[in-house]
């Protein structure tokens, strides 16, 4: 089975790609560069705000930037460095594109002729990309669906103290935002000592376990497809500064020990 990983340039992506390659479950990686993606999102958010809310919008975006930077630092220090992971596997085919759905990316994907696409952290993929894989297109989503869709799902589950729904899902990708049929999913084992970032590390490790399991099931043609129910209530927007403040007030233990 030929497997291609389409992802963003992040610490979890490097971790997952490295271990998939070690298990012989990865043939190529296509990286969607985040710079243009982030710029586009920031500009879209600011343009959509009224002149009275522009300042608060900028503050909210900065809060997410700080949170994401701290999470990245934690994952690199506590997950990548102990395993000597500092990049993607050297011997795997590696491509960098501005968008996972642009003509360059589509051309690369068609030339690779994958049986299975594994997707993590990219912008929403166009139907043309979703139709390329011969067998499956699977999305690694760091949240339990349908309860937690969109980005930062683990944050929202933690902020709601919804411990049983902190985890990851492997989804059959469709054009929606985390609306595809569920392949498999699992929850993170939370302890009293866990913080916001140690939970994110555990969720990354769980995501790896689940995608390996899904690939092995796909090889036998026994990968489940369970339609999601009641997806209308599970979409969560990007956290704002007030959401981080509320979490700090309600569950201060989760925001201790940043490093």
CATH topology: Rossmann fold
How many structural domains?
A: 1
Write down the Rg: 18 Å
CATH second-level architecture:
3-Layer(aba) Sandwich
- Name the beta content range: 15-25%
Helix percent band:
40-55%
Tally the helices: what do you get?
Answer: 8
Strands, total number: 7
Shape type = globular
Order of helices and strands: EHEHHEHEHEHEEHH
For this structure, what is the CATH class?
Alpha Beta
List low-pLDDT spans.
none
Strand order of the largest sheet: 3-2-1-4-5-6-7
Category by helix and strand content: alpha/beta
What about the largest sheet? 7 strands, mixed
The average pLDDT score comes to 90
Distance between the termini: 39 Å
Characterize this entry briefly.
The protein has 259 residues and is α/β, with parallel strands linked by helices.
Chain-wise SSE layout:
Blueprint: E1 3-8, H1 11-22, E2 28-32, H2 34-48, H3 54-80, E3 93-97, H4 103-112, E4 116-120, H5 127-130, E5 136-141, H6 153-159, E6 167-172, E7 182-187, H7 196-219, H8 241-250
Parallel strand pairs: 1-2, 1-4, 2-3, 4-5
Antiparallel strand pairs: 5-6, 6-7
Helix pairs in contact: 1-3, 1-7, 2-3, 3-7
């Amino acid at each position: 089975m030929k497997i291609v990983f389409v992802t963003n340039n992040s610490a979890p992506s490097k971790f997952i790609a490295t271990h998939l390659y070690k298990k012989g479950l990865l043939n190529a990686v296509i990286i969607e560069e985040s710079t243009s993606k982030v710029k586009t999102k920031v500009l879209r958010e600011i343009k959509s705000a009224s002149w009275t809310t522009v300042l608060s919008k900028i503050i909210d975006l900065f809060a997410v930037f700080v949170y994401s930077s701290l999470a990245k630092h934690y994952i690199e220090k506590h997950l990548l460095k102990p395993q000597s992971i500092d990049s993607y596997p050297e011997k795997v085919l590696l491509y960098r594109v501005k968008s996972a759905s642009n003509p360059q990316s589509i051309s690369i994907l068609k030339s690779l002729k994958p049986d299975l696409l594994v997707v993590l952290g990219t912008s929403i993929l166009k139907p043309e990309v979703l139709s390329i894989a011969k067998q499956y297109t699977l999305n690694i989503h760091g949240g339990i669906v349908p309860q937690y869709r969109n980005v930062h799902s683990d944050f929202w589950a933690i902020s709601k103290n919804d411990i049983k729904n902190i985890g990851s899902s492997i989804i059959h990708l469709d054009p929606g935002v985390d609306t595809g049929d569920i392949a498999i999913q699992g929850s993170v084992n939370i302890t009293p000592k866990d913080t916001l970032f140690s939970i994110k590390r555990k969720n990354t490790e769980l995501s790896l376990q689940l995608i390996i399991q899904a690939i092995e099931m796909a090889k036998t043609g026994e990968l489940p497809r369970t339609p999601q129910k009641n997806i209308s209530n599970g979409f969560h927007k990007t956290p704002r500064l007030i959401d981080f403040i509320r979490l700090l007030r309600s569950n201060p233990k989760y925001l201790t020990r940043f490093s």
